[in-house]
Amino acid sequence: FAYLGQWANEEELYRAALKLNDNNVIAHNNYGLLLLKMKKVEQAESHLRKAIAYSHNTATALNSLAQLKLSQGKKEEAIYYSEKSIHLHPNVADSYAMLARIKISQYKYTEAKQLLKKSLTLAPNDINTLNTLGEILIYTNREDDALKALQHAITLAFTKDPVKSFALNNIGVIQLRKGKSPEAENSFREATRLQPGLLVARLNLIRVLLAKHDLDSAQTQIGAALALAPNQPVVLSLSGDVALARKQYAKAYVRYRRALFLNPDLADAHTGLAKVLRIFGNTDAADIQEAAESELRLRPRPSPSMRPANSIH
């Protein structure tokens, strides 16, 4: 039942499974995770708690409940359920990986790294854990160790596995830090080829293309990024960078203003906007500001869910 069809069809399948057997632990757990994706948090929690109540091995359901609490920002509750899972089932790798995710959200990278290594002693070929460990090692400036973990993940992953694309993106980040721009470009391109919807890799590719002044390619990539996330401030700001590099100053101005309308604290958009204003001069800037503000007044204020989470770039 777990991966058939779209959400509506999956929901019908889970309901049918539970109608046949309300004690079906797997169905309750997976249905709970599906409802969490659908933002139906209260219903999700109800099914996850049933999975815990009916299960003899509660590790999976406890980890799922920890994931739900983390999605709500209730990190202490998430830690409670994750640690309970580890206490009851100390040989389940996913429990350590889940607790590591919570520690990462608290920027406790040293603790997260130790938990991920423990998880890998129990499941050494888990590509998700290898990729997450690679990210942590990037955060802590251990690029060589990160590269080993990420390359191992890539060798284990199936071609179309989304984790492979994330690992390639992270490898590109390391290559860029080491000054290997051509190699980084190849990694970002491969990541977007395997997973066209991986926005972070596409944005990283655009930054590389801008740095080498390949503006035509950058324009093509920013068009794809805008199609994926037309209201994401980082995308709009980077679109402003592309327009600015192409000397499309009016377009750059509007894109930066839109980005700042959605996220007033976005530093890159402030920097880009300042450059445009210096180029225009006060008179021209006032004219275009009036036109841009007229357009922006027509745009609804976004909900917090439209604002992007932090990502490696």
What features would you describe in this structure?
This protein has 313 residues and is mainly alpha-helical. Helices cover 75% and strands 0% of the residues. The longest helix has 16 residues. The N terminus and C terminus are likely disordered.
Number of helices: 17
Radius of gyration (Å): 23 Å
Strand content: under 5%
Contiguous runs where pLDDT drops below 50 for at least 5 residues: 1-7, 298-313
Q: How far apart are the first and last residues' alpha carbons, in Å?
A: 36 Å
Total E-strand runs: 0
Which sheet architecture does the biggest sheet show?
A: none
Q: Give the proportion of residues in helices.
A: over 70%
| Structural class computed from helices and strand pairing | mainly alpha
Order of helices and strands: HHHHHHHHHHHHHHHHH
Arithmetic mean pLDDT: 85
Shape, per Cα inertia axes: globular
